[in-house]
Amino acid sequence: MDLWYTEKQTQAFGITAKVRETLVAKTTEFQHLAVLDTEEFGRMLVLDGMVQTTVRDEFVYHEMITHPAMLTHPNPRKVAVIGGGDGGAIREILKHDSVERAVLVEIDGEVIAASKKYLPEISSGLEDPRVEVLVADGLQHVREHKAAYDVILVDSTEPVGAAIGLFSEEFYRDLYEALTPQGVLAAQTESPFFNQGIIAKSFRGISGAFPCTRLMLTSIPTYPSGLWSFTLGSKSNDPLTVALDKAQVLSTRYYSASVHKAAFQLPPFVESLIRG
């Protein structure tokens, strides 16, 4: 008998993958966690019935949440990831030679443990000596660390449960305070097709805190609609005008200097979400 997993991305639309094996399925303190071995996308991390990452397409998400922000800062030395327990953003951060310390703040330690066991190609950077892994509340961590980081990446799940606060205006103001004078924020902000309200609210909140705010797009097959957004907030440097020489030496499969520039070019229907 064939086994299939379906994520209902809306009440009327879903994505389905044929499953070879269920590697783990359990309820943690915060959410339901599963790792599935699928035929099309390989091992897949699923939280509360929503696909978080797969070994086949994860590089797109992790490169795009990381490198545009890292290259917008002139010399990022201290970097934090809020959420992102799979470790993919940490792996990408460590490709930048300037990084001295990278802090992962993940509220659910079970996500970290499952990723280390079942997603080693994604979580490999978590063992690097420059990395500090904290099982803690990201909201509280940000509030308690003023001017502590050059770059902060908010690699959150969808705004449900423990992640709701990671999309609030108060949190964006706290992020601003947690960054150094040339600090840069990048946050995942959902799908332009299915989550227009979240994009508009997030952009409004980030632009209310940061003098330079830009929305960028990328394509990730296993995410709702396949089209995904990130919002970048910067205290001083504009990602549209920064030098991108360092992009040429990064070992990436999706991100490049030309992709960096193109990602900020928005189709009219997306532009209207943040200008209306």
Set out the fold topology.
Layout: E1 3-10, E2 13-27, E3 32-38, E4 42-47, E5 50-54, H1 58-72, E6 78-83, H2 88-93, E7 101-106, H3 109-118, H4 120-123, E8 131-135, H5 138-144, E9 149-155, H6 169-178, E10 179-188, H7 196-209, E11 212-219, E12 227-234, H8 257-263, H9 268-275
Parallel strand pairs: 6-7, 6-9, 7-8, 9-10
Antiparallel strand pairs: 1-2, 2-3, 3-4, 4-5, 10-12, 11-12
Helix pairs in contact: 5-6, 6-7, 7-9
What descriptive keywords fit this protein?
276 residues; alpha/beta; Spermidine Synthase, Chain: A, domain 2; Rossmann fold; 2 domains; 7-stranded mixed beta sheet; 5-stranded antiparallel beta sheet
Structural summary, described in words:
It is a single chain. Helix content is 29%, strand content 33%. The protein is of the alpha/beta class and 276 residues long. It folds into 2 domains: 3-53, Spermidine synthase, tetramerisation domain (Spermidine Synthase, Chain: A, domain 2); 58-275, Vaccinia Virus protein VP39 (Rossmann fold, 3-Layer(aba) Sandwich), CATH 3.40.50. Strands 8-7-6-9-10-12-11 form a 7-stranded mixed β-sheet, sandwiched between helices. A 5-stranded antiparallel β-sheet has the order 1-2-3-4-5. The protein is globular.
